[in-house]
Automatic annotation (TrEMBL):
Coiled coil: none annotated. Residues 9-57 form the A9CJY8-like N-terminal domain. It comes from Actinoplanes digitatis. Pfam families: A9CJY8-like_N (PF21631), ACT_7 (PF13840). It comes from the Bacteria. InterPro entries: A9CJY8-like_N, ACT-like_dom_sf, CASTOR_ACT_dom, CASTOR_mTORC1, UCP008459. PANTHER family: CASTOR ACT DOMAIN-CONTAINING PROTEIN (PTHR31131:SF6), CHROMOSOME 1, WHOLE GENOME SHOTGUN SEQUENCE (PTHR31131). This is Aspartate kinase. Residues 60-121 form the CASTOR ACT domain.
């Protein structure tokens, strides 16, 4: 079973047009407990960030809460995201997952947070706020 941290702020998933530069509002990086994920792809710049740091002119899906798997995790581990996503899929809680070198993150809709936490603890995961 996994130990998870519930990050304190709400998050947003943002999209900017292909070729966009990193917005200045995000250039200083995240707060101490926060996370910002930036993915440049041929057809978009996708950003996951605290809701109070959303870039101007972005297409935004807001009101997500973020769970961080306590790491660091070995990159050879298998099944980490599956152990989280599987039970949430059975409970019909949608997710957005992303990873860093050290760990995995999971966004769940803020309105479904209680249900997501109950689902994950019911299968043995431990969650700290």
């Amino acid at each position: 079973m996994l130990d998870l941290d519930l990050l304190p702020e709400e998050y947003a998933v943002c999209r900017l047009p292909a070729g966009s530069a990193l917005p200045a509002s995000l250039s200083s990086g995240p707060d101490v407990k926060g996370v910002i994920s930036v993915t440049w792809a041929p057809d978009e710049l996708s950003i996951i960030c605290p809701a109070d740091r959303v870039p101007e002119d972005a297409t935004v899906e807001a009101s997500w809460r973020c769970l961080r798997v306590v790491g660091p995790l070995d990159l050879a581990l298998t099944g980490v995201l599956a152990s989280l996503a599987g039970p949430l899929a059975e409970a019909r809680v949608n997710i957005v997952a992303f990873s860093t070198y050290d760990t995995d993150y999971l966004l769940v809709p803020a309105v479904r947070l209680s249900e997501a936490l109950d689902t994950l603890t019911a299968v043995g995961h431990r969650i700290a706020a």
